[in-house]
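Work Package 4 report. The design task specified in the project plan requires that, given a folded chain encoded as structure tokens, an amino acid be chosen for each position. We show below one input record used in the internal validation round.
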């Protein structure tokens, strides 16, 4: 009986080692591919770092799920466990769905965004049209610097849903200087 347990644990150890090695090699290949792609399309290093953090998180989750399956989830109870987990996740993230879509949009924008940091863009939004220089692209939002010296944060998911125009440098309006409020004369009675 003890020999059977040792053999079973040895097999699980081998499976665990293979799983970890395969997923770490996958992580290494994905990171190398992302770095090469970022160099090719001239993305900034901190944006590349954000996407790599998402890859690290995904690989870690896959390792945890794989090790959990290898070391002892009873498949009869798997349906119960998964339905409970999804119920908790569904309730916890229902109000936060836009946050998840912004993170996903941020990763999509890394690979398919036709404009980059420093470009002057116009977002065609009926309710709140805005334009400005792309100052930074974060995990959840894009930071724009308008010609009126406003800092505008725009959600990543909305950037993919709205029309966006890149304005050529010769068509960009000059920034408007803010008047010095200390020098404005008050109206006299």
């Amino acid at each position: 009986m003890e020999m059977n347990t040792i053999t079973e644990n040895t097999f699980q150890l081998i499976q665990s080692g293979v799983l970890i090695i395969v997923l770490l090699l996958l992580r290494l290949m994905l990171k190398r591919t992302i770095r090469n792609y970022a160099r090719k399309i001239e993305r900034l290093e901190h944006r590349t770092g954000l996407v790599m953090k998402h890859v690290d998180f995904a690989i870690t989750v896959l390792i945890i799920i794989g090790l959990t399956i290898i070391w002892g989830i009873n498949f009869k109870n798997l349906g119960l466990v998964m339905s409970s987990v999804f119920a908790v996740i569904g309730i916890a993230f229902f109000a936060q769905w836009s946050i998840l879509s912004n993170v996903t949009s941020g990763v999509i924008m890394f690979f398919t965004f036709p404009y980059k940091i420093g470009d002057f863009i116009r977002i065609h939004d009926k309710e709140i049209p805005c334009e400005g220089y792309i100052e930074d692209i974060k995990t959840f939002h894009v930071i724009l610097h308008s010609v009126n010296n406003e800092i505008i944060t725009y959600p990543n998911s909305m950037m993919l849903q709205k029309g966006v125009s890149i304005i050529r440098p010769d068509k960009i309006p000059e920034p408007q200087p803010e008047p010095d409020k200390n020098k404005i004369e008050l109206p006299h009675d």
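The chain has five helices and five strands. Validation will be extended to a larger panel in the next phase.
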